[in-house]
Amino acid sequence: MKRLLIYVSVIVALVVGAYLLIYGLPGSSPVSYTFATVTRGDVETTVSATGTLSPVTTIEVGTQVSGTIDSIFVDFNDTVKAGQILVVLDTLLLKASVIDAEASVEKAEAQVAQAQADYDRNKTLFDKKLISESEWLPYAINLKSQQATRKSAEASLDRARRNLDYAVIRSPIDGIVIGRSVEAGQTVAASLSTPTLFTIAQDLASMEILADVDESDIGEIKVGQDVRFEVASYIDKEFTGTVTQIRLQPQTISNVVTYTVVVEAPNTDNLLLPGMTATVDFITERHTNVLMVPSKALRFRPTEDQLAAVRKRREATRPETTDSTRATSARRAFAGARSAQPPENAGTVWFLDSLGQIAPAPVQTGMTDGSNIEIVRSPVLSEGMQIIAGESSSEESSSTTTTTEQRRPMNGPPGMRPF
Asked: Are 366 and 377 in contact (CB under 8 A)?
């Protein structure tokens, strides 16, 4: 029995020893960190919206006369010039109307000539007192009436000729045909409204985006702002533009108030097509070539034990002082603490010093884009320096992170006083 107990005790001791050898004593394992690099680049704030691409100038070409389409000379994507013939209507009835109007004018001119002769003959008799005024007056009235009839006939002739000209439909601008709504042989009726035959975009080398911006963000949008946008057709390509107009007319959809912002975008490569949906980022503020760190680095907080160790090292590095000197320094520090104001947007990031010990680096921050934050001023940080972004779990430290004993990032001055 004693021998059995000895065997069991030895086995238990071996198991405990192996566990401590592998895992160490509780709380004695080194702290593992995730690190980030201080970089230099651009930090910007944006307002996001969606919009639809369209040509800057779009003309809908219609017809002012009714009739059957006789010939069509252009198709989708054709480039046209101003004055170029697009379509011709059947002109048979229109030419007949012109001939009828010309006949009406000739008839009216003959009636005017007869009325003028009657007027002249009876005017002579009236001047010689051979007929009374009541007998002469109908001839004068008839002349005026026939002259008015001739003017009406001439107007009808002008209208008929113009309608005949309208049967030949021409392009009003230089551009490209992006829409066609008719076919040869189709009848179009212009009695109530002008039917649209073609849609012509003036120039696809310059597009515009009509973006819907929420009312909570519209105050940050200004004319002339730079814009960055993407379209689904080219996921890896980024396009740019400029805000040209903020329309004051609101739109309310599902109780959400939005305003239309017009963005002009160059399309020199002809990659952007009308109707594409664009995801737009309005760049409201941008700081270029600034020192920046990940935002999570400023959210890292050491433990109380780590802070105590930092304070202990700081005290150890301070020079010896006498009681009177210490009292004077304390009074000055107290007076300075009452009058001094902490810097705006002050913060602290942490790094490992030359001894592998955690140390603070005071910073004054600027703008942020959510993932990175600008460092306006820091006596410690420099480009390329490694800083602590957070603590990693034991599982992470074994595969993806580096412990304090295994890796020491770029050195920095130990024991800096945070703001």
From this structure: no
Q: Coil, helix or strand for 184? A: coil
Within its chain, how far is the Cα of 417 from the centroid? 44
| Rounded CA separation 228/337 (Å) | 46
pLDDT category of residue 311 using cuts at 50, 70 and 90: confident
List, for residues 148-178, the tens digit of each pLDDT value: 999 999 999 999 999 999 999 999 999 999 9
Beta carbons of 208 and 227 less than 8 angstroms apart: no
- Distance from C-alpha of 200 to C-alpha of 25, rounded to nearest angstrom: 80
Q: Which of 265, 281, 276 has the alpha carbon at shortest distance from 217?
A: 281
Spatial distance between the Cα atoms of 115 and 274, rounded to a whole number of angstroms: 64
pLDDT in tens, 254-300: 899 999 999 999 998 889 999 999 999 999 999 999 999 999 998 88
pLDDT band (50, 70, 90) for residue 355: confident
Looking up tokens 């198991």, which residue turns up? Answer: 15
CA 111 to each of CA 117, 121, 124, 150, 276: distance values in angstroms, whole numbers, following the listed order: 10, 16, 20, 8, 65
Cα–Cα distance measured from residue 125 to residue 38, given in angstroms and rounded to the nearest whole number: 114
- Which amino acid is present at 374? E
* Residue at token pair 């006498």: 322
| Buried-state track 266-302, b at ≥16 Cβ within 10 A, e below 16 | ebeeeebeeebebebbbbbeebeebbbbbbebbebeb
For 277, residues 6+ apart whose C-beta sits below 8 A from its C-beta are: 50, 51, 52, 53, 231, 232
Which residues are paired to 227 by β-bridges? 241, 282
DSSP letter string over 250-300? EEEETTEEEEEEEEEEE-TT----TT-EEEEEEEEEEEEEEEEEEHHHHH-
The DSSP letter of residue 217 is T
Cα–Cα–Cα angle for 48, 272, 239, rounded to 5 degrees: 45
- Residue in this structure with the two tokens 């179009």, named with its chain if needed: 188
